Amino acid sequence: MxxxxxxxxxxxxxxxxxxxxxxxxxxxxxxxxxxxxAANALAALSLWLFGRPLVPVQEPLRLWSSSFELVANSQxxxxxxxxxxxxxxxxxxxxxxRLKPGWPARSKLVVxxxxxxxWEIVENTPPVVRLFNETSQPGxxxxxxxxxxxxxxxxxxxxxxxxxxxxWRATLxxxxxxxxxxxxxxxxxxxxxxxxxxxxx
Length: 201
Hints:
Elements: H1 8-19, H2 29-49, H3 81-99, H4 105-123, H5 126-134, H6 146-166, H7 168-186, H8 190-197
């Protein structure tokens, strides 16, 4: 009979996430905030290297923009896609919470922010930008402005806290309602957009 031994890497990660580098108590809030800030700085640097602007180039920065024109799409602080990022953050929280229920919330938040940052970097790579423009998504896309990308991660963080407050059942219900509203209003959504990229619709 084989004995199952815990993966050493998983055990080390669990220990780091639950007790912190010093092994006492839990990871400090300051450390978790620092990790989140560093991750966002990495995203900003990556987008800058991709040639993305800090703010919209051809018009003033706005708090909200619903335009899908090339000069405005994903360039301002918030837009219809911000709701998709809130859903993404809520979904990531539910996933991490089910996978690692013993982790403190601050460690789960770091993982969710890292997940958002990875997506922001991948989303703005030239091949992915071209892929989005080859699908039937609304408007034209030239990549995010740096401010828009950072705001997207802020929306993911908001989704994290909303899901933590509501629980997974209410989060799922809210996600379905928001997804339907996005499909009806802008003919796009988290699920629909993913299916388009995969060529399923």
